From TrEMBL:
It comes from Niastella soli. It comes from the Bacteria. The keyword Signal applies. PROSITE patterns: PROKAR_LIPOPROTEIN (PS51257). This is T9SS C-terminal target domain-containing protein. Residues 1-21 form the signal peptide. Keywords: Signal.
Length: 448
């Protein structure tokens, strides 16, 4: 990738007179608005009366702030998938509304995954150094991330939709729908949906950000991928898998609702800070062995490589190969000691509800995991997903995850009595929704 060193200001694309790079000489003009390239080093304001087209990697740097109005549309074409990188010290102020979300999407007449590269926030909160630089082929000048500012502020993402994202540079080196590198707790992320992404929906590389109301819908790899010492909190989130859609796999990889690691093994699994997310009120829907389910679907929850976790007041159902999986002895030890918990939650899977890897068996076996989960941790295992009584969870084109009247999700009281859960919003139900309100209404989309 060529090194970018100058700011390219917004301007209307006029094909007859515009100056283009050689590989852009035949670009179609966007419907209205501007082509965006290069590095933004001063404050800019994008308005909903224009359509903005990202050409390749675009960096907001030099402590600049990019403000995006509610209702604004940002597109990308598949010949030059746009990646918007908000670099350390800079901010994005993208605050849509339920009626007028901000949408990052494909500019193609027939959109497909990978047309848009992705949205990347780079902060100065802490991580454990597992990843040394940003993934995805970013310019060398913008590869570093992290620091010691736990309350670092990268801005606001609110009522934002990211569609058809994913840029695979090399195997294992991709841009996700929303990538969060050491993003700090001063950042606001609330009501964000990633739709039909080619790789992970949300990936957290360290950091302390505390999002709410997240939706991962029909993404090809993992929906919530947490690693590098991420130590934030997330409440109210949805993961829905399309049974036939997974990305290209290498090295025994699988697509999961959750995939959580401390390190990738190139450095010690005990490297601090240890990945230790605290999560509550998730509803995660796997493929549930529907017709045409990809062989590359794996687990509802894949906890591995030395991570700690608390997942509480949640529903994980339809996992293909297993429900709750523990890998690596350190991960198993955290569960056995009670540091990690799948707490006051519901679990259903097509096959084994609990699975431990060969490295874990000597520390804790699957029968002990089941016993701890259903006794000490107060969670319930369901052999039939219908017994949980969500309205229409496996209707991928039009999912309805609200619990029906009489659902155990409504009759089982949520619990926030763990110290780690004390700062969460106190609701009465299990999962992401009560039986009445739908916080996805108006701004989220389905059937893509």
């Amino acid at each position: 990738m060529k090194k970018l060193s100058s700011i390219l200001l917004l301007g209307l694309v006029v094909l007859a007179s515009a100056c283009h790079k050689d590989d852009d000489s035949n670009d179609p003009a966007p419907t209205s608005g501007a082509d965006i390239r290069g590095v933004i080093t001063t404050d800019q304001h994008w308005t909903k009366d224009k359509v903005y087209r990202l050409r390749g990697y675009v960096y907001v740097a030099n402590n600049a702030t990019l403000t995006i109005d509610a209702g604004t549309k940002i597109i990308s074409n598949n010949d030059s998938a746009g990646v918007l990188v908000i670099y350390k010290g800079s901010k994005i102020m993208a605050e849509g509304t339920a009626q007028s979300p901000i949408v990052f999407t494909s500019g193609e007449a027939t959109p497909k995954s990978g047309d848009f590269g992705g949205l990347v926030l780079v902060g100065e909160s802490s991580g454990n150094g597992n990843h040394k630089i940003l993934e995805g082929g970013v310019d060398q000048a913008y590869q570093n991330f992290g620091g010691t500012k736990e309350d670092d502020n990268s801005g606001v993402l609110k009522y934002v939709r990211i569609e058809y994202a994913g840029k695979a540079v090399n195997p294992g080196d991709e841009v996700n729908g929303l990538s969060l590198y050491a993003v700090g707790s001063g950042t606001t992320i609330d009501y964000v949906e990633v739709v039909r992404g080619l790789d992970d929906a949300f990936e957290f590389f360290g950091g302390s950000v505390n999002p709410k109301h997240l939706i991962a819908y029909n993404c090809a790899d993992d929906d919530f991928d947490l690693d590098d010492g991420y130590h934030g909190k997330i409440q109210f989130a949805v993961s829905i898998k399309n049974p036939g859609f997974t990305d290209t796999k290498t090295g025994g990889d699988l697509s999961n609702n959750f995939e959580v690691d401390n390190t990738n093994g190139k450095i010690s699994y005990a490297t601090t800070p240890i990945t230790s997310p605290v999560l509550s009120n998730f509803t995660a829907i796997g493929p549930n062995n529907a017709a045409g389910t990809s062989v590359d679907y794996g687990y509802g929850m894949r906890w591995r490589r030395g991570c700690k976790f608390i997942l509480a007041n949640s529903i994980v159902m339809g996992g293909q190969k297993a429900g709750l999986v523990l890998e690596i002895a350190e991960t198993g030890a955290f569960y056995k000691s009670g540091v990690s918990k799948f707490y006051n939650s519901f679990l259903h899977s097509v096959t084994s509800p609990f699975l431990v890897s060969s490295e874990v068996v000597s520390t804790i076996d699957s029968a002990t995991v089941a016993n701890i989960t259903t006794t000490t941790n107060l969670s319930k295992v369901f052999t039939d997903a219908a017994t949980i009584k969500l309205t229409d969870p496996f209707n991928n084109a039009a999912p309805n995850l609200k619990p029906q009247a009489g659902s155990p999700a409504l009759t089982t009281a949520a619990k926030f009595d763990l110290t780690e859960l004390s700062s969460f919003e106190k609701v009465s139900y299990i999962g992401a929704f009560d039986g009445t309100n739908d916080w996805t209404a108006g701004w989220a989309v389905w059937n893509k």
